[in-house]
């Protein structure tokens, strides 16, 4: 992600933090937001169009830069509220990072490679899509790549098999399955057995 897509401009908010003030901001094309950190929360207003456009490029582990007047904050996107009916973001929460101090974040897992098993008719199934890690802000990856090219049918890749950077600490059970390659025949048999069991239950009822 480019530095341009990482950068946001915001206006400071010093009053009217209630729902009425939030509605006024939304009507004017802005989004109420808060930056949380070790100090008092910083209330800001984002440009709705800019944030919505750039949000498409954000990952939960992307370090963002917000300019509020002459002050600059490095943050992570913590949470946001969305009005699905209107297709608009209603509120955003950010978490300010402190350089030199470790942070915890969720990072996406991206599968890399074409498994041997899929070339033999198997189906690749990704079970784990993100993990929690701990690291310094400068070492925060946008994603973790997991190589599945060696997987054959009925084989699985676990967290302990993934090569992680030495600069991060994985806060997950390393025995968790990341992905596996299932045989098509096995899936058909399982499906047939399930249908037979359901039919038997229906007859008993």
List keywords for this structure.
alpha+beta; elongated; 6-stranded mixed beta barrel; 2 domains; single chain; 13 strands; Ribosomal Protein L25, Chain P; 4-stranded mixed sheet; RNA Polymerase Alpha Subunit, Chain A, domain 2; 205 residues
Description:
The structure is a single chain. The chain has 5 helices and 13 strands. The mean pLDDT is 87. The chain has helices spanning 3-6, 19-27, 48-55, 116-119, 184-204; strands at 7-12, 30-36, 42-47, 64-68, 71-83, 88-96, 103-112, 123-126, 130-135, 143-147, 156-158, 169-170, 177-182. It folds into 2 domains: 3-96, Ribosomal Protein L25, Chain P (Beta Barrel), CATH 2.40.240.10; 103-198, Ribosomal protein L25, C-terminal domain (RNA Polymerase Alpha Subunit, Chain A, domain 2, Beta Complex), CATH 2.170.120.20. Strand 4 (64-68) and strand 5 form a beta hairpin. It has 205 residues and is α+β, with helices and mostly antiparallel strands. The radius of gyration is 23 Å and the shape is elongated. The longest helix has 21 residues, at 184-204. It has a 6-stranded mixed barrel with strand order 1-3-2-6-5-4. A 4-stranded mixed sheet has the order 10-7-9-12, with no helix packed on it. A 3-stranded antiparallel sheet has the order 8-13-11.
